[in-house]
Amino acid sequence: MPGGPPKLTADYRERLLAAVRQRPCCLGRPYSLWTLRRLADYLAELTGIRLSYETVRVALKAGGVVLSRPQHTTSSSDPEYRVKKRRSSRPATISPPMPPSIYADEFNLRWLPTLRVLWSPRGQQVMIPTPGQPDKYYGIGAVDYHTGKTVVHFERRKRRKEIAALLEALLAKHPTGTVYVAWDNAGTHEDDEVEEVVRAAAGRLVRPYLPTYRPWLTPVEMLWRHFRREVTHRECFATKQALLAAAKDFFARHNQQPHTILSVIGSKAMKPICLYVGVPPYAGRQGIRAQRDSMRHTIPKQA
To answer: Strand, coil or helix: what is 66?
Structure first.
């Protein structure tokens, strides 16, 4: 007997190809990079048709859209720009006392878009516009490993003064108890201004230092990576103020949903443990499935 009509319609293909050729933020999505999952979710909202990620990938491939790495492009009013660019591109002839609860670090916030692979027509390289005069800010922030809450400041420079301001903000956010802040032993993380904050905390601020150039020891590095993937990858903002606004909105939005941050940084704090009560040991999987909805109790795992 013939099966039902295919879910993948011609209208779905057209909408899929039209969506993947636009930036997600232009369609009102809160991210800058398309993935198969996001495309499937967006098209499901748009058409009411839910397809698997593999079906979406096959449809993209049939439409000549594949993953490729883009390239920066720069515009200039100088009529000799191309000649000068070719000339300039020629080769020249010449261990902590206890597990810390807060991890802190800095990251660069560049106006120049970061490049990652994206969906594009086969054989064509997408050109990402760049600002005429690249500029950057510094993000100085921290994430609580047990709650997922973040405190992030954006500054023009990352000196001891800005580091001390972050420590003061963390102490204000945790008015009682001992605050453990772990970061690497860079020179800006110590000296007079930082030590003054430590002395004023009267023993409430403990700073376990991690080895330098060991990003895998700092969970906050995974948060910075997630931030770039969601905000700055392939996105050239019209102004520096728009870039800062998007960065601040990202952390404000995720502070309302700290469980997403816990997942990003790999924390197991408050991970739900499901206990099925009243199921006899001989019931097997079918017995568990039958009573799962009515007999489930979620108990948060203490950090």
So the answer is: strand
Handedness of CA 253, 259, 262, 263 (dihedral sign): negative
Decide if 173 contacts 142 (C-beta within 8 A). no
Q: For the chain, what is the domain count?
A: 3
* pLDDT tens column, 93-125: 334 434 458 999 998 888 777 776 777 788 877
257 shares its domain with 297: no
168 and 123 co-located in one domain:
yes
Does residue 104 contact residue 166 with C-beta atoms inside 8 Å? yes
Residue 74: inside a domain, yes or no?
Answer: no
Structural domain containing residue 287 = 271-303
| Residues 252, 113 share a domain | yes
The answer to whether the pTM exceeds 0.70 is no
In sequence order, the 6+-apart residues with CB closer than 8 A to the CB of 145 are 100, 101, 102, 103, 219, 265, 267, 269, 303
Residue 4 and residue 6: Cα distance in Å, rounded? Answer: 6
